[in-house]
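Shipment paperwork, digital attachment
Item: protein structure file
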Amino acid sequence: MGKNENINGSIKNNRQKGLKASRKVLNDNVRVSVIIPLLNEEKLINRVLSQFTDDFKKKHNVELILSDGGSTDNTLKIIDSYYDKLILPESDKKQNIACGRNLGARYAEGDILVFFNADTYSKNLDTMFENLKKIINCDGVVAIAYPIKVFNDECKFSDRIFHFFYNTYVRVLNFLGIGMARGECHVVSREAFLKVNGYNENLIAGEDFDLYRRLAKIGKYIF
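Attachment content:
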């Protein structure tokens, strides 16, 4: 694995107002920052991180940023061989998911920010990244939202019904121009993310809807 970098970042010092732009394009290949907020994820995180092999990151010019909110289980031991940057809070106070995502974005070098939850797995990550690099910043597109399903080996009939209607609900809101995304995966232009001031850290829930609602006011998005 590549060289790992640990960063101590105070939540108090990294509110939205502290976000700064830092664009970096290498050899005309768009840089992508994958940001995953963590909090006691030992049961799930290995499966998620195994997608981001060294070969994959090199192929798609990806940096993997993990933003821990104060895990007390074995999460930090499990992730040691995967990340490029690990963001740690300075205090013992647990941060919400919006804080974790904003901290990751603060230290990101990519022109495209991909926010994954710690339980999110892509069916075809290669195709996903090939497409998102073509779509973001093209014809005014500033963000992408994705339909979400439960892992096949864990999916129940009730899960299929729930996610069908929830995904349809998200699709309708986007069709109406309101702006909406499932929290499991957000893809956003770094420039647009900074322009709307990132995630609202005062929200305990609904930060995903709030972000895309604001993004909808400055550009296009795809679901």
